[in-house]
Prior knowledge:
The chain is globular. The chain has helices at residues 17-27, 42-52, 80-97, 114-131, 155-165, 176-182, 186-193, 218-227, 249-254; strands at 3-7, 31-33, 55-56, 58-60, 101-103, 136-139, 170-175, 197-202, 233-236. The protein has a single domain (3-254), classed as TIM Barrel (Alpha-Beta Barrel). The protein has a nine-stranded parallel sheet with strand order 3-2-1-9-8-7-6-5-4. Strand 4, helix 3 (80-97) and strand 5 form a beta-alpha-beta unit. By secondary structure, the chain is α/β, with parallel strands linked by helices.
Amino acid sequence: MPKFSANLGFLWPDRPLLERIAAAGAAGFKAVELHWPYDTPAAEVKAACAKAGVKLLGINTSPGDAAKGERGLGAVAGREKEFQAFVDQSVAWAREAGATAIHCMAGNLPPAEAAKGAETFVKNLREASEKAPELTLLLEGLNPRDAPGYFYHTIARKAEIIEMTGKPNVKIMFDVYHVGVSEGDVLTKLRKFMPLIGHVQIAAVPSRAEPDEGEINYQVIYAELDALKYDGWVGAEYKPRGTTDAGLGWMKAAG
């Protein structure tokens, strides 16, 4: 059975970050992952994780100007310096806090600029990889319903970018929710791309609520991950239907 990590970008949203970490530990999670924790000192997060008995996994590079709808800058030509500044911020914070991975956000891009975007992203990822070879750099495609205009939506496209980058610490973030909404055929894609997968995330499809409703039978997903000998973490990145604690029955049912 997989090891579950609490994604504190969505879980316990009514509490400040340090209290969310404590809540995750109290709920039985053994790891946490974050979105953009930069307003909280890394040393405080490290101490809170140690107290709660949880491992700190990944964080995201800055999305840029969220008020303008930006979702990162990794593939945006002409803004390479800004993206590398975000990488520097993430690497420094991750190292101090004890995190192990960084999701490098690609950003929005018109389809006509896809080739240039890929070239830009590959160059940016190579530079980021050399800055932090000990960290895993994760690539996550966002589904076009929730994130129209995002640089990529498919697992195959992420695999192409990884191949072009040629760096061993660049891996796929396999978010079952995004894959389910974007493409479907989740089990086939897990099997095909498992060698490139660095992290897995879950949520119900199509609601993005607790992983106990909708189209995806997560007991089948968990069994497949076991069969494929996936030994990484499975991040619970869902939006609770009510209070987070009230919705944790799915984790108990999963064993």
